[in-house]
Amino acid sequence: MKLYYKPGACSLAAHIVVNEAGLPVALEQVDLANKKTADGGDYFAVSPNGYVPALAIADGDVLTEASVVVQYLADKQPQSGLMPAAGSIERYKAQQWLAFISTELHKNFGVFFKPDSTDAMKSNNKALLEKRLAYVDGQIADKTYLLGDIFSAADAYLYTVLRWAGFTGVTLPANVSRWFAAVSARPAVQKALSEEGLA
Ligand SMILES: N[C@@H](CCC(=O)N[C@@H](CS)C(=O)NCC(=O)O)C(=O)O
């Protein structure tokens, strides 16, 4: 398998899951501005929407969408506990978090990275993100990780998008800050940051 990534982008979630699960996955950095792979190839030929992450799997198949790529990777190593068993209520809870992170957080951070975003758009999204983070704060008040005591792919995805809070001016509430520090301290997370030149 090969993971196409950009340092610090949402592809970091998949990279963290790769490291947590100890999977043999090659990494290839993408030049997103020019849509080029590391060897100068056309990234659109890998991923027609031109965004990361993309995971090349067997037989030339490619998976995209961070919330799906992390599940695929986690399921390659079920004993890691990174995703609960398919069909269990815990699995749906994990998917509920992944969908929430994708649609309520990840997408709403996007405005901060677009050159044509106005200050009003950024201010609006900052307020919305902080409202959503207040919800997350309540949910994890008595938990170590999103699903309880076990680190999951949803934590990897949430950590990845909340790394952007610092440079977008979005404030993390207390329980989320505590959770963020705990995730940061995980060796697999530090390894991923280091491999992406972010440590
Ligand atoms: N729907 C995709 C969105 C992925 C996405 O927004 N990727 C960003 C980096 S975090 C990207 O590659 N942006 C470059 C672009 O869209 O040209 C997902 O959920 O994975």
From TrEMBL:
The segment(s) forming the GST N-terminal domain are 1-81
Q: Is this entry keyworded Transferase?
A: yes
Q: What class of enzyme is it?
A: transferase
Q: Where is the GST C-terminal domain?
A: 87-199
Q: What Pfam families does its record include?
A: GST_C, GST_N_2
Q: Which UniProt keywords apply?
A: Transferase
State the Gene Ontology terms under molecular function: glutathione transferase activity
Q: What is its EC number?
A: 2.5.1.18
Q: What is this protein called?
A: Glutathione transferase GstA
Q: Which organism is it from?
A: Paradevosia shaoguanensis
